[in-house]
Specification:
Structural class: mainly beta
Number of strands: 8
CATH superfamily: predicted glycosyltransferase like domains
Order of helices and strands: EEEEEEEEH
CATH architecture: Beta Barrel
């Protein structure tokens, strides 16, 4: 028997993204939470897509909390994006947290889309030898 899940298929392709990520807690249930504003964490990226990313950190972040994620894209510099936690689960090295980007539009989104496309092409360059 097949197990039912509430997960929807991803709208956008994701690429591996094993780069440093920093996050800062901002809001929970539409309220700014100043007592947690000093809570921030270094994390290690897991994957990156046009509408979100996942990372592993030492913190278990509740769903619907809003964070600012900051990471560097080679050739494009530092990216600072608001994101909402969609999923969080414990893994061997901490907590795998998936976030959905909230304020990524227009030219910024196009840059990310092009970066993902370029990285994907690099991953498939070996196919020319077959």
């Amino acid at each position: 028997m097949r197990k039912k899940t509430n997960l929807l298929p991803r709208r956008y392709f994701r690429i591996p993204f094993e780069r440093p990520v920093d996050f800062t807690i901002l809001k929970y249930k539409r309220r700014y939470i100043t007592h947690l504003s000093t809570k921030y964490g270094p994390a290690k990226g897991n994957d990156l897509g046009e509408d979100g990313m996942s990372f592993v950190s030492q913190y278990s972040l509740p769903e619907d909390i809003v964070v600012r994620v900051v990471f560097e894209l080679p050739g494009l510099g530092e990216q600072s994006i608001l994101a909402k936690v969609i999923r969080n689960r414990q893994v061997d090295s901490g907590y795998l947290t998936a976030v959905q980007f909230l304020n990524l539009h227009g030219a910024r989104k196009d840059k990310l889309r092009n970066y993902i496309a370029d990285e994907t092409k690099k991953g498939y360059q070996f196919l020319q030898y077959f």
